[in-house]
Amino acid sequence: MTIKHAIRAGLLGLALIATSGAAQFSAARADALDAIMKAKVIKIAVPQDFAPFGSAGLDLKPQGYDIDMGNLIAAKLGVKAEIIPVTSANRIPYLQTKKADLVISSLGKNAEREKVIDFSIAYAPFFSGVFGTKAIVAADYAALKGKTIGATRGAIEEQELSKNAPADATVKRFEDNNATIAAFVSGQVDLIATGNTVAAAIAEKNAARPPVLKFVIKDSPCYIGLNKDEPKLLAKINEIVAAAKASGELAKLSEKWLKAPLPPGF
Amino acid sequence: MGEVKKDQRKRGKTNMTYKLQFAELLPYWDVLLQGLIFTIVLTLVSTFTGIAVGTAGASLRTFGPAWAGAIVTAYVELIRNTPFIVQLFFIFFGLPAAGVMLSETTAAFLAMTINLGAYSTEIIRAGIQAVPKGHIEAGVSLAMTKWEVLRHIILNQAFRKIYPALSSQIIIVMLGSAVVSQVSAQDLTYAANFVASRNFRNFEVYLLAALAYLILAMLARSLLRGLGRILFKAAN
């Protein structure tokens, strides 16, 4: 290849990139909802490494709460769902670069994120709380009086618990989540402070001793992320999520993947 | 990339000028003290129980019936060839499935006793075997009972011979007791971990814990040496 050829090829490449960029730009300017309805495909970024919200199933296809939620939205829109597995680090960039129309990826809301993307109403519960065997009654911190609770040392829920539990409650702190789970499963403790997804995992693998929610310590539900300035899409997604909540479809998803009903007040 | 590098350089620099702030540990002095006391009590009690197990094991293995010797051998091999933390997890997390529920404190004492018991069995057995046969025969010919021979001739001499090795093992077990923090037994390491999870002063906390263990070990060593002088006057 001569230098002249190389330059020509390079220029051609640049031109191609420029035009495709322009094409993308113009597509972004058009209303996202109209574009989705026209293409009859909605691209949804889902987690690939965060069970039960999204992980690879035995057939290596993504499965989980978020995937079911994505399919539900696509079905309500009457379009095909294109499921894109992403990691938690690149889920927002996928949205920003229009590789995805929606991010349904156990996304929590915070001020930093709200600067760059919009959020729907909450579609999935995500919280830490005190869980325990069915027989135990403990509706709040005060009810932990005289009881023993296992928790993972340094975790938010452990710190909150240590701060708020009555003085004569015993907090047994373990090194990591696995040890805390082992303590509950083996019966060394009847109460644990942990996340609802961890409780779901215990319930699934150890049906004989399912941990039941006693009260919520910290609530940070999941929201669907979408690009800013897409009011029509946002309104439509909110409408679908609200309808799914009212019809009990979200409760069904919660039972299926989180092994628990939607928490009160969700 | 450039920014990452700069960031690393910056971090390297802050590490160099890291300011030790032991004052941040002060609010937790009671937690740390309780942990220290727990470690001392745990070591003291399991030293006595562990050596009792070891003495019984060594005697059984040397003089007991064949089947008892076989059981002791199996016990010693099982414990000496598995990690302490696995033994502890088996007792705390595993045994409840078999209906044996022990608290973390009981599990810690039991695991320490079982562990020291196995090692001291071997150490004491070596001492017993070093007792000349003639001494035992002399005892028997003086019409001493079996127990008297064991107590006054065999074990007395055996302990004198293996005392330094046994002392070392006690220190090793004491330092190994840090592992019991993993089943939430509230020893010195548990306390240090707890403080580190609260104020993130890892450097100070673990430095302090290391110093505490060092002083404990040195104190225990000189205590044991003094005790040895009193117990075995003739040997020293």
Ordered list of secondary-structure elements with their pairings:
The complex is a heterodimer of chains A (266) and B (236).
Chain A: H1 3-29, H2 32-39, E1 41-47, E2 49-50, E3 54-56, E4 62-63, H3 65-77, E5 80-86, H4 91-96, E6 102-107, H5 111-116, E7 117-124, E8 127-132, E9 148-152, H6 156-164, E10 170-174, H7 177-185, E11 191-195, H8 196-205, E12 212-219, E13 222-227, H9 231-247, H10 249-258
Chain B: H1 2-16, H2 29-63, H3 66-80, H4 84-94, H5 104-129, H6 133-141, H7 146-176, H8 188-199, H9 202-231
Helix pairs in contact in B: 2-3, 2-5, 2-7, 2-8, 3-5, 4-5, 5-7, 6-7, 7-9, 8-9
Describe this structure in words.
The complex is a heterodimer of chains A (about 270) and B (about 240). In chain A, strand 3 and strand 4 (about 60-65) form a beta hairpin. Chain A is about 45% helix and about 25% strand. Chain A folds into two domains: about 30-125 and about 220-260, 3-Layer(aba) Sandwich (D-Maltodextrin-Binding Protein, domain 2), CATH 3.40.190; about 125-220, Periplasmic binding protein-like II (D-Maltodextrin-Binding Protein, domain 2). Chain A has helices at about 5-30, 30-40, 65-75, 90-95, 110-115, 155-165, 175-185, 195-205, 230-245, 250-260, and strands at about 40-45, 50, 55, 60-65, 80-85, 100-105, 115-125, 125-130, 150, 170-175, 190-195, 210-220, 220-225. The longest helix of chain A is centred in the N-terminal third of the chain and has 27 residues, at about 5-30. With about 270 residues, chain A is an alpha/beta fold. In chain A, the strands form three sheets. In chain A, strands 5-1-6-13-7 form a five-stranded mixed sheet. Chain A starts with a helix and ends in an 8-residue tail after the last helix. Chain A is elongated and about 80 Å long. Chain B is mainly α. Chain B has one domain: MetI-like (MetI-like fold, Orthogonal Bundle), CATH 1.10.3720. Chain B has nine helices and no strands. Chain B has helices at about 1-15, 30-65, 65-80, 85-95, 105-130, 135-140, 145-175, 190-200, 200-230. The relative contact order of chain B is 0.14. The interface of A and B includes residues 150, 174, 186, 187 and 188 of A.
